[in-house]
Every structure is written in C-alpha cells, then in structure tokens.
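Hey, resending since the last one bounced:
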Amino acid sequence: MKPRDTLAFDINDLRRILKEDGLYNQETRKKIEEYINYYRTYEHNDVKIFDELE
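The structure tokens again:
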C-alpha cells in the first residue's frame, strides 16, 4: 500500500469517527485540511527523517 493510500484511509477513518461522535465540524475539517496540506508539502521533498545524525 502506498503512503498516500494509507493517509487517505486514515483520514476517512478519522472523519467517520468524528462524525459518529458528533465532533466533525468546521474547526476539525480545517485541521484535517492543514494536515493534508502538510503532507502534500513534504511528500515529494525527500525528507530523510530517519537518517543518522551527522
């Protein structure tokens, strides 16, 4: 499974849970959108998070 597919699955699951709990509103939609935009920004930048520190 590609990272993008995993993210999409998790975002949809998060939305479902928030809706079930009555917490899905404009504020939570905005935060989810910010998270998606953050992912898009760093998806193709080849960020090496787990490389050894020099």
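The radius of gyration is 14 Å.

Sorry for the duplicate.
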